[in-house]
Specification:
By secondary structure, this protein is of the alpha/beta class. Helix content is 36%, strand content 18%. It has ten helices and nine strands. The chain has helices spanning 7-17, 22-34, 48-58, 75-78, 112-115, 119-124, 159-162, 176-186, 200-211, 217-230, and strands at residues 38-41, 63-67, 79-84, 89-94, 101-105, 126-129, 132-135, 141-146, 167-170. The strands form three sheets. The protein has a five-stranded parallel sheet, covered by helices on one side. The two termini are 31 Å apart. The mean pLDDT is 80.
Length: 249
């Protein structure tokens, strides 16, 4: 009889590869369960790419990394249509957005026109190329990173783009003990991400279990009141929370 896989099994597999960064691991697992996306802000070299690649490897899913630069085009992300002279027809070339886990590295390095190429994919789980729309995989998670140390040549993320992310995580430096563990783990040989810990079907099953969790009416009203409170004028909040359904829970 096959043993039932649980989200904690995936978390343990990620912790076996990544030293520390519990907040990043927790955010990625929540994004998988809630069908959302994660924005990570922190200096380079803090295992953001490794964490994203480890999730895809543990789920045996497809991983794509997109390096955002000022000269990037929307078609470099979603794909484009090319004319096949031999067949005299247009052929569609799908972009790197077609993956289960997509790393949008330094997303604020590209202008708003390029960032907007992600809007349909992140919200509708589909991409429109020419006259046709193409469904993305399930699960589909965008993990975007921003570097706070260098603001030159960057573009502020539009509100519509920020609204597509379920959460934002500030990634900090590891502690001294964690850095010692990093030296022990990676000084001699690279630690490869674990494979086959769970499957994409397991993730879809976990989501169904999460949707079946009972929420009391009092808790629902509290959530609605809390969200509504953020929309009232305040010196601490520039923009109130979006519609509750945006959270995909």
């Amino acid at each position: 009889m096959m043993q039932e896989r649980r989200p904690c099994d995936l978390r343990d597999a990620l912790s076996a590869t990544i030293v520390g960064q519990e907040g990043v691991i927790e955010a990625l697992l929540l994004a998988l369960l809630c069908n959302g996306h994660v924005l990570l802000e922190g200096p380079p070299g803090l295992a953001k790419t490794l964490a994203c690649r480890s999730v895809a490897s543990a789920l045996e899913g497809e991983f794509k990394r997109i390096q955002f630069t000022p000269d990037l085009l929307p078609s470099d992300i979603v794909g484009t249509r090319i004319f096949d002279q031999r067949e005299s027809v247009f052929a569609t070339v799908l972009g790197p957005i077609f993956a289960n886990v997509v790393l949008a590295d330094e997303i604020n390095r590209a202008p708003a026109k390029v960032q907007s190429a992600l809007l349909e994919a992140m919200q509708e789980r589909q991409v429109t190329i020419g006259p046709q729309s193409y469904a993305l995989g399930d699960p589909f998670v965008v993990m975007a990173t921003m570097n706070p140390l260098d603001s030159e040549g960057t573009y502020a993320l539009p509100i519509a783009q920020m609204d597509r992310f379920l959460m934002k995580v500030n990634v900090g430096y590891p502690s001294r003990d964690e850095e010692l563990r990093i030296l022990d783990r990676f000084a001699i040989a690279d630690t490869q991400p674990m494979r086959g810990v769970a499957t994409l079907d397991d993730v879809r099953g976990w989501r169904m279990q999460a949707h079946r969790v009972h929420i009391d009416e009092k808790l629902k009203r509290y959530i609605v009141d809390l969200v509504a409170k953020t929309r009232e004028p305040s010196q601490y909040v520039d923009y109130g929370a979006s519609q509750i359904g945006r959270a995909h829970v």
